Amino acid sequence: MSQKEAIAAGKTALGIEFGSTRIKAVLIGEDHVPLASGSHEWENQFENGVWTYSLDAIWNGLQDCYRDLAADVKAKYDETITSIGSIGFSAMMHGYMAFDKNDELLVPFRTWRNTITEEAADKLTAELNFNIPQRWSISHLYQAILNKEDHVKDVTFFTTLAGYIHWKLTGEKILGVGDASGMFPIDSTTRDYDVKMLKKFDALVAPYNFSWKLEEILPKVLLAGDNAGTLTEEGAKLLDTTGNLKAGIPVCPPEGDAGTGMVATNSVAVRTGNVSAGTSVFAMIVLENALKKVHQAIDLVTTPTGDAVAMVHCNNCTSDLNAWVGLFREFAESFGIEVDMNKLFSVLYNKALEGDPDCGGLLAYNYFSGESITGFEEGRPLFARSSESNFNLANFMRVHLFTALGALKNGLDILLKEEDVKVDKIYGHGGLFKTPVVGQRIMAAAMDTPVSVMETAGEGGAWGIAVLAAYMNNKADGESLADYLNNKVFGGEAGITENPVASDVKGFDDFLKTYNAGLPIERAAVECLKME
Q: Cα 462–465–468 angle (5° rounding)?
């Protein structure tokens, strides 16, 4: 069947993901290869002390994104989309969207970006003996309770952005387990909300005499491959304002961006993981065994099938590194040299591989903003060295690549060294890995683990949720998501792998000692260099 015929026959899957600055749609064929795409740019708003997106922005963005996809299909294949084999929606995880008995939004959408729930997060972490970050949905709900916000008594349902979109298009108040794991802790043995923790929360808020129990207002949890309803007549009109799209299309469980990232990098199996390294950086490792203790640097979420995942998230990664590369471009242009930025990145990154294993005693911090793992609420990018340091271009580039992963390595060392978590392979994606070999070598040194990059990783989360929609429709009886990805999506592709080099591994460990010992320098910079 040709691509045009597949579109006409509805032998496709559509994924739409709401990122923080862009909504993206990807339509794939039966071979999971993208056929067309669409997008819509958007920005959150800071209103009354809360980072939010309005309901109008959500729906206008979704409709514009779908319109852009439909136009791409029309331009490429001269086809009008009337049917799709299956659809999936995903979005930024966490946050708070609470509704009353009339399905009305009670307070403006509070996104994951808000840091207004510290009291609630700390109390819940202590009460549940489980790390509950500020951005989690349960932190937002409990903080509203502590704040004595009047709306809490009227809550009949609360969910994430992906859960909200799915509900309005299908009528189903459900959530994929990966996204649900960012609302409230999941028990990976039952692959549902942790029953003991639900009871602890209800006991904690019992003095407030709410009419609801927590389980009653949370979305129902489904796993990848489960049927999560169909597009209703109203939903079809909401998605496609032209009215061409027919109702009745199967929709897979909505997922969070962490889960779709795992799918897009084929890292849903136990002892695999992925690192997304760009403006910020996070690493996720699928756990073989439960962690021995609670760590505030480690978030516990799940794969789209409910397996436990340890996540280390850092606010800062490549921004300072990119700024230095920009300075080198400015230097070259001052001599009248026209600079190819891809070549400049390649030359400078590769220069780092010539440096001393420990960066020759150079030190840098890439903190454009605060970094919770090392205890900073604010950051100041800085570079420091002693008169004895081996100051050359190779070490200068190497230290900025190392420090881009410095805070992350502190979190990963908790998992790999304190908790003895086993990892067979890490998949890298994001800007740090665009220059071949170098980013992988540095990441492999930080983790002492092979790091692979696959071409498909660049397709992103919208492609990942499209694949999950296809899995729901096309999986064989008993076929696991990991097997489906290996056999039918990635076709055995392992990507390009860089193994850790012993001298690099030791060098990164030595650098980290200098990095941690020098944190008071960064703290002094925060205190002395005041932001205007």
A: 155
Q: Render the burial of 90-121: b for 16+ CB within 10 Å, e for the rest.
A: bbbbbbbbbbeeeeeebbbbbbbebebbeebb
Provide mean pLDDT across the span 163-174: 98
Q: pTM score, two decimals? A: 0.88
Q: How far apart, in whole angstroms, are the C-alpha atoms of residue 55 and residue 489?
A: 35
Nearest to residue 25, comparing CAs of 76, 95, 83, 73? Answer: 73
Name the 3-class secondary structure at 299: strand
For 310, phi then psi, to 5°, come to -95, 130
Q: Confidence band (pLDDT; 50, 70, 90) for 509?
A: very high
> What burial letters (b/e) apply to 147-183, b meaning 16+ CB within 10 Å?
eeeeebebbbbbbbbbbbbbbbbbebbbbbbbbbbbb
* C-beta atoms surrounding 466 within 10 Å: 33
Instruction: Encode pLDDT of 217-237 as tens digits.
Output: 999 999 999 999 999 999 999
Q: Where are the domains of the chain?
A: 319-404+502-528
Percent of the chain with pLDDT over 70: 98
Q: CB-side exposure of 118: number of CA atoms within 13 Å?
A: 4
Sheet architecture: strand order including 299-302: 299-302, 308-314, 281-286, 272-277, 425-429, 451-453, 496-498
DSSP state string for 78-123: -------SEEEEEE----BEEE-TT--BSS--B-TT----HHHHHH
Q: What is the mean predicted confidence (pLDDT) over 361-367?
A: 97
Strands, E assignment, 134-181:
157-159, 174-176
Q: Which residues pair with 497 in a beta bridge?
A: 452
pLDDT digits 0-9 by tens, 462-508: 999 999 999 999 999 999 999 999 999 998 676 899 999 999 999 99
For the ranges 108-112, 302-306, 430-434, which has the lowest average pLDDT?
Answer: 430-434
- DSSP per position, 311-371: EEEES-SSHHHHHHHHHHHHHHHHTT----HHHHHHHHHHHHTTS-TTGGG-EEE--SS-B
Q: Terminus-to-terminus CA distance in the chain, angstroms?
A: 61
